[in-house]
Amino acid sequence: MQSAFTAERTVVTAGSFAQEKLPLSFPVARTWLYERSDKLKARSAAVRSKEEARESIKTLGGPTVSVQAVQIAGQKKIDIHKDISLPMLGSIPIGLDEKYSLNGPRAAATATWPIYTGGKITAAQEASKYAIDEAIANKHLTSEELDAQLAGYYFGLQLAVSVEKLQKAMLDQQNKELQKAMKFEKQGMISKVERMSVQVSRDNTHREYLKAKDNVKVATLQLSRLLREEQFGKLTTPLFVLKGPMKPLKYWVDTALASNPQLAVIQAQANQANEGIKAAKSAWAPQVFAFGQYNFIKHYQTLVEPNWIAGVGVNFTLWDAKDRRASVRSAEATLEQAEAGKAEAVNAVRTAIEVAWLKTQNAIDQYKLSASTVTLARENLQLKNKGFDEGLNTALDVTEARSQLLKAEVGRRLAAFEFVSNYAMLHAIAGKMADFMNAVNDKNVIVEQ
């Protein structure tokens, strides 16, 4: 049987799917979801924001050059009186009493270049890199959650449609049996009570059929809202169960610990917290910097104003209004919080993986066991039908046998749905939901539609 997960060769836009109501496969549904999900759009925007933020501080350790122009009004008074001793002349008084105007424009280019900041700049740059990692991990987490949700809705609709078909087939058969019972009643072969029992059973089946139709409507609505698509055609990717054994639990645990997006988010937060400690400790280090200034307008300069000036400076904060020790302790507590959160998350991931793996394995077992139940129920129904035609069985015997077959068929499909939903969850927790797309290409059992 050709895999329903095989990528379509013909590229069809979402709009044409809606108009023509073409069949909808799981990969196409996933494409729609990724294109239209507001959650993913928000996560993508967050990633771009963090990337641009990192770009903005990539050259933070480089020079800063600025140009300033001002118009100055003011004056400087110089008042100097001093006796100067000269040879042969004795002591001569010298006096200087002048006022210098400072009026005029000034324009200068100023440059500063941090040489050593105690690791503050490096910490900020590294923290921005880890902030991108966190945003990417959050986007991955959202995509995995949406994939698991899509699997539940898509295959839930497949289950609902399958059960509706079973209920419809049973209703059709019971309608025929009711007609047969009414005929036999007229011929005196069965009593009125027996015929009425057949009719009551038919009515009960009719009610179950109506419930099944409502379940299809609800499941269709859920998938429609998730995909932002009002109309779509028949779902073409069927429920399935793997024939071969699953990969061992250890594989899934190791994969989850290495690739689970929630753990990646927490690890990125811990890395940022660690850089925050480095940044807080840098406040205790001296700040070494180079500086320079060049004045463009020299006409209005006073005697003491330089044409240009450059040098190297050191700034060491002796007292800060901000408690630097508390800042370091706060950063260390943030790191402790992240590490504790990671430990808790690791335990939660292990538990979730083990539960999903056990449920998936149990669903496989239930599906395989249901095969013999379905076979037995089908043969029993054939036997009861033959006995009813020969007058050896009552109509109630046939109805009961048909109900047993329906229950077995529904149980088989339910086991397949439990497998698919838990298998999808297993991949989502492990951070490998993309591998789920190829799952049906393995040796498998496809449930009848």
From TrEMBL:
Belongs to the outer membrane factor (OMF) (TC 1.B.17) family. This is Transporter. One of its GO terms (cellular component) is efflux pump complex. It comes from the Bacteria. Keywords: Cell outer membrane, Membrane, Transmembrane, Transmembrane beta strand, Transport. GO terms for molecular function: efflux transmembrane transporter activity; porin activity. It is found in: Cell outer membrane. Signal peptide: none annotated. It holds the Pfam family OEP. The keyword Nucleus does not apply. Its main location: membrane.
